[in-house]
Amino acid sequence: MKPNNSLMAAVLITKNRAQAVKTFIKKSIGYLTEAGIDLFVYDSSTDNTTHAITAKYQKIYPNVHYRRHTGEDNPLSIDKKVLSIYTMYAKDYKWLWLLRDGLTVSHKITQIKKHLQTNYDFIIADSAKRDIRHLGTKIYTNNLQLFQEQVANLNTLGLIIVNSHFILRVIQEVPLSPATYGLWQPIAFFHYYARHTPNVLFLISKIWKPNSAPTANISHFWIQKLCWQWGERWVNMINALPQEYNSCKQGAMIVKTADFEPFSGRTLLAGKQAGGLNFKLVSKYRKYLKQVSREKILFIYLIAVLPVFWAKRIIRLQENFRHFMDKHIYKTI
User: Fold this and answer.
1) Could you name the CATH architecture of 8-210?
2) Backbone phi and psi for residue 101, each to the nearest 5 degrees, phi listed first
């Protein structure tokens, strides 16, 4: 049942990151309350720590709510979790904003209020710093332009505020299938837009910022998931889109946003450092890696066979160089 008359709900998707949730609520709830937005902590944790933290804030803020995820919890894909959230809350709110626990909400969230009376399909809210194409605030009514300029960004939880009527239509017309599994959002949107005209706002407004709580350590499983999701699944899902996207598909294969490039040399080194990137894994995903990485396949193999010690050392040298440039060079420009 809907707790109040809010037009919008923010749903924080989390698992075993109690400190991040605590930091999120502490830094965000005042701004969310001011903007009239309800917060749901949607938790898949293996203990009750996150629930206990949320309960403390529920005593103070009536717009804070907790729900434990009881369905499938696939480490490879959150598709079913995302669909469950949309289906569960769409009937009660006009707008839904799914967030990851690596973010917090900024004071600029109040800028969203004036857009809640509109009927956009969804709002992409991003900062000027992350707008690497220098697009500026704009409205999309062409599906090919939206695909070319935003398909990579739309994968980021936190960027998209969806209209509930729109998302329910997408779920009905483009259910989870082999053509969309792995990254249902946003791939399903573009199947839908092959038959419908988009009405999407790209809003330059820094309504969120990184969470200062420590992030989880990268595990050996992380690079395996990366190769599956952003290698095999990404290539297959892009290729499975309707033919009208054919002219744009090749350009969408290599994902690069302001803060995410899954198969850059640096990311691959991090995978090697974590112990998951090896010759066997590269060989398994070779045909996909050749399509989704700017790095030559021989270079990827070289990183795969590199001793972990050297991967750690190279990363440390890169970080030291970047800090030196930030301190002594860039600040003088």
Assistant:
1) Alpha-Beta Complex (3.90)
2) -80, 5
- Assess whether the previous peptide bond of 186 is cis (omega < 30° from 0): yes
Which amino acid, residue 171? Answer: I
Residue type present at position 251:
G
Please write down the HEC assignment for all residues of the chain: CCCCCCCEEEEEEECCCHHHHHHHHHHHHHHHHHCCEEEEEEECCCCCHHHHHHHHHHCCCCCEEEEECCCCCCCCCCHHHHHHHHHHHCCCCCEEEEEECCEEECHHHHHHHHHCCCCCCEEEEECCCCCCCCCCCEEECCHHHHHHHHCCHHHCCCCEEEEHHHHHHHHHHCCCCCCCCCCHHHHHHHHHCCCCCCCEEEEECCCEEECCCCCCCCCHHHHHHHHHHHHHHHHHHHHCCCHHHHHHHHHHCCCCCCCCCCCCHHHHHHHHHCCCCCHHHHHHCHHHHHHHCCCCHHHHHHHHHCCHHHHHHHHHHHHHHHHHHHHHHHHHC
Could you report the per-residue pLDDT of 232-257, keeping only the tens digit for each?
999 999 999 999 999 999 999 999 88
- CA 8 to mean position of chain CA atoms: 19
Give me the residues paired with residue 11 across strands. 40, 98
Note the pLDDT of residue 332. 44
Q: What is the pLDDT of residue 10?
A: 96
Question: What number of CA atoms fall less than 13 Å from residue 316's CA on the CB side?
Answer: 7
Residue 320 burial by Cβ neighbours in a 10 Å radius (0-12, 13-18, 19+): exposed
pLDDT of residue 287: 97
How many whole angstroms separate alpha carbon 104 and alpha carbon 112? 15
Residue 42, strand partner residues: 13, 67
Task: Return the C-alpha torsion angle 127, 132, 138, 143, nearest 10.
Answer: -120
Q: What is the pLDDT of residue 321?
A: 60
Pinpoint the residues of the chain covered by CATH 3.90.550.10. 8-210
Considering Cα of 158, then 66, then 189, then 230, what sign does the dihedral take?
positive
d(C-alpha 147, C-alpha 153), whole Å: 10
Point out the residues of the chain with pLDDT beneath 50: 1, 330-333
